[in-house]
């Protein structure tokens, strides 16, 4: 697993050279700017909605009053820390939903960019088949729907776990790896769709090579730390890096 995570990280380091060499910037910059703007808007609304959710939970459960009573004690500290953990978990869940909306809206571009990358890597003289591309887009949308249902289920479990003192503190980390796994899954499935590999086999591959998926999703996440340019480049970089990683695994 660790070896595959390293392969995924190395693939990201090769993306910039790959894009410049094959003049792919036009497929990256404009869609990336749109993604960045949507990301800013979504995080603004998250900041408001998450605060309201936490206030609602503390009011309806009576935790707010109890917290006032134990404000200067260890119990107060635990309640406060649990609130921070809950906020982080809600942030990840909100970002997860945002990501799937972007995957659905941007599926035509991501599918095309993925196919373009594979054609270049395999040095094939191949015209893009738009009928096949439409089928791939529909498959990508169905996969996004499947993954969002599974992630919502797991997040609901993690949400309950946050109520457990101390043990609940690790929930944001678990949620992060889940998010990386499912995002990487979507990126790699573009290649499987083009090869007419059934979704069941794609799921099996994801289970056997989860390091590639987690590594891809992790760097995608880390790119968001670089405000502005990181938000613009993250989606397209993840698509191209997934194809490079898969090519390396197949040829080694």
In a nutshell, what does this entry contain?
The protein has 252 residues and is mainly α. The chain is 83% helix and 0% strand.
Description:
By secondary structure, the protein is mostly helical. The longest helix has 32 residues.
Radius of gyration: 20 Å
Number of continuous helical runs:
10
How many β-strands, per DSSP? 0
Residues in helix, % = over 70%
Write the layout of secondary structure elements.
Blueprint: H1 2-21, H2 29-60, H3 63-69, H4 74-105, H5 107-121, H6 130-161, H7 171-194, H8 199-208, H9 210-223, H10 229-251
Helix pairs in contact: 1-9, 1-10, 2-4, 2-10, 3-4, 4-6, 4-7, 5-6, 5-7, 5-10, 6-7, 7-8, 7-9, 7-10, 8-9, 9-10
Descriptive labels:
252 residues; globular
């Amino acid at each position: 697993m660790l070896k595959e995570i390293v392969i995924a990280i190395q693939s990201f380091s090769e993306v910039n050279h790959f894009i410049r060499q094959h003049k792919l910037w036009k497929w990256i910059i404009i869609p990336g700017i749109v993604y960045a703007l949507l990301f800013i808007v979504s995080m603004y609304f998250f900041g408001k909605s998450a605060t309201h959710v936490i206030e609602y939970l503390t009011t309806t459960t009576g935790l707010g009053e109890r917290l006032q009573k134990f404000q200067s004690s260890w119990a107060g500290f635990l309640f406060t820390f649990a609130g921070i953990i809950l906020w982080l978990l809600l942030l990840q869940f909100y970002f997860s939903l945002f990501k799937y909306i972007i995957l659905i809206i941007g599926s035509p571009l991501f599918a095309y960019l993925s196919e373009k990358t594979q054609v270049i890597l395999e040095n094939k003289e191949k015209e893009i088949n738009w009928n096949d591309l439409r089928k791939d887009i529909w498959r990508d949308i169905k996969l996004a729907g499947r993954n969002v249902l599974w992630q919502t289920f797991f997040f609901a479990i993690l949400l309950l776990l946050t109520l457990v003192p101390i043990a609940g503190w690790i929930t944001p980390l678990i949620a992060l790896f889940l998010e990386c796994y499912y995002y990487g899954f979507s990126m790699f499935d573009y290649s499987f769709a083009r090869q007419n590999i059934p979704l069941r086999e794609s799921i099996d591959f994801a289970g056997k090579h989860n390091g590639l998926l987690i590594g891809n999703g992790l760097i995608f996440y880390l790119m968001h730390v670089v405000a502005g340019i990181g938000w613009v480049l993250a989606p397209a970089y993840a698509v191209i890096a997934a194809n490079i990683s898969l090519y390396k695994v197949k040829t080694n």
